[in-house]
Known about the structure:
- The chain has helices at 2-25, 66-76, 86-93, 155-165; strands at residues 32-34, 44-49, 60-63, 79-82, 102-107, 116-121, 127-130, 146-150.
- By secondary structure, the chain is α+β, with helices and mostly antiparallel strands.
Amino acid sequence: MKYIQRVSVIILITILLCGCQSMSAGVQMKTKILEIPNTSEYVVLRVQGVDKGVASEETTMTIKNNKKIEEFIEKVNKMKVVQPTKDELMEKNKELNNKGNYIFALSDKESMDNKVYIMNFFKDGRIIFQKPNGKKVSSIGKGQKLMYWSKVKHPELLTELKNLLNIKF
């Protein structure tokens, strides 16, 4: 009789653990609308790409045309985003050095030492956004945490932005 009780308890515990695991797997990430801070203050858009895993002068472009900067912001601002896990972000950022992926940085100064907002665009259409805190970027990287990514992938958006900004790398 004790044997049957023990087996019953083990089966019950197993069922409860499996139920808890499937419930946590079904948890949906909370969607939010990301708003880029200080949109009217940006006067520089720097685009950095890579070729053969290396960034260079040939894969860097600085745009100072206010109309193009405004169009860029209009296309990426107020996008639906979710907050992935730290591991998911780290894994995705490992791809950043692959050809076809880009870093876009908005700044209120050409020196990029005041208000800077960073976005990583991946060739598969995923976009990773900085936490919209609008803080100054410090020398130790504070104020520029990449925290959110697009809820859905937008591969057509990267192509559209490359055409808009005449990016050839």
